[in-house]
Design brief:
By secondary structure, the protein is an alpha/beta fold. It has a single domain (2-174), classed as Rossmann fold, CATH 3.40.50. It is built from five helices and seven strands; from the N terminus they run βαβββαββαβαα. It has a seven-stranded mixed sheet with strand order 2-3-4-1-5-7-6. A hairpin with a 2-residue loop joins strand 3 and strand 4. It is globular, with a radius of gyration of 15 Å.
């Protein structure tokens, strides 16, 4: 299962906090998303190699993301925590970089706190997408204000490139 974190609604669509949704949209392509009322998420199934993979975009706000993840996991009792990939923004990593790590996320992320609480563990794959570009822009607000700010035009190419790299790596890992 691959879960991209973000906030629902047009207001948040182009914010830094929604990079997980960007990866999901690129991974799924033009296919339609289906509403899963049980998990409170938009879901799709894609074939990667010989594997059928559930992908989802929780439609709760970030601090409630864990509800959608735990509900989806309950539908798949065979799913181990190590079979779950959560794609999220990481303010501890520079824009254009990313890390794939098992059981390790950023210092402070409300979406992950919700998932940790609901699953009772941090032992799943974190796809940590760097969004920190505050020194180069420069940005004077809080971290919370920054993650909810929109991408600057000059940052879009960089984020599109890293989304492409992550999609390629996910396809390799999940094949």
């Amino acid at each position: 299962m691959v879960v991209g974190l973000g906030n629902p609604g047009e207001k948040y669509r182009k914010t830094r906090h929604n990079v997980g949704f960007l990866v999901m949209e690129r991974l799924v392509g033009e296919d339609e998303w289906k509403v899963s009322k049980g998990s409170g998420a938009l879901v799709n199934w894609i074939k990667i190699g010989k594997n059928k993979v559930e992908v989802m975009k929780p439609q709760k706000f970030m601090n409630k993301s864990g509800l959608a993840v735990v509900r989806a996991k309950k539908k798949h009792p065979e799913l181990q925590n190590e079979d779950i990939y959560i794609i999220h923004d990481d303010l501890d990593i520079e824009l254009g970089e990313y890390k794939l790590s098992l059981g390790k996320g950023p210092k402070d992320h409300n979406g992950l706190k919700s998932i940790y609480e609901q699953l009772g563990t941090k032992d799943f794959w974190h796809v940590r997408m760097g969004i920190d570009n505050r020194m180069k822009i420069p940005f004077k607000g809080s971290g919370e204000e920054y993650v909810l700010s929109q991408w600057l035009p000059e940052e879009r190419e960089m984020i599109n490139n890293v989304v492409g790299v992550i999609v390629k790596e996910l396809k390799n890992v999940l094949a």
